[in-house]
Amino acid sequence: MAALDHVMDPEMPGVSIVALGMVHTVAVDRERVRITLLPPFVGCPALDVMRARAVSAVSQATGLEPDEIVVEYSAAVPWTSDRVAPSCHRALRSRGIAPPPRVTEEVMTEMPPVACPWCGSVDTEAEGVFGPTACRSIYYCRACRNPFEAMKPV
Ligand SMILES: [Zn+2]
User: How far apart are the first and last CA of the chain?
Assistant: First the structure.
């Protein structure tokens, strides 16, 4: 787990796959380390990069050969944005990205306003459903007049 905490999401620099809540299980048997990750967004182009980085990080930390480390994605448990750690919320805000709100029925049906990560105002509006990545939307803050990205609740 310590090695995996050094594996960053390539689309969110400084945010590890552990902080994102992507690590489902780590199991060690006599022959291999088996790591199961939960994919946040199906079809996310970063998944293959994160798998390769996870193998490399565990290999370096343990001295195991890469073929002794199996990293798989599983849909056994659905990833939700509630798995994102509070430390990750702070890291996202410091990069101008609004963290995902707690998933409630109200959030999913009424899309309440998203707080601006720069000034905290909720006087914001959605500008576009898709930001630079599929997991983020573009917003505009009327209070401080800055655009910002928001991680979508899932
Ligand atoms: Zn603002």
Answer: 24
Beta strands, E only, the chain: 8-9, 12-16, 23-28, 33-37, 69-73, 97-98, 124-128, 136-141, 147-151
Ligand 1 centroid to Cα of residue 120, in Å, is: 6
Instruction: Report the separation in Å between the CA atom of 18 and the middle of ligand 1, taken as the mean of its atom positions.
Output: 29
The amino acid at 26: V
How many angstroms does the Cα of residue 145 sit away from the middle of ligand 1? 6
Give the pLDDT band (50/70/90) at residue 103. confident
- d(CA 34, ligand 1 centre) in Å: 43
For 55, the 3-state DSSP assignment is: helix
Domains in the chain with CATH codes: 4-79 (3.30.300.130), 86-151 (no CATH)
Q: Write out pLDDT tens, residues 4-48.
A: 999 998 887 788 999 999 999 999 988 899 999 999 876 777 889
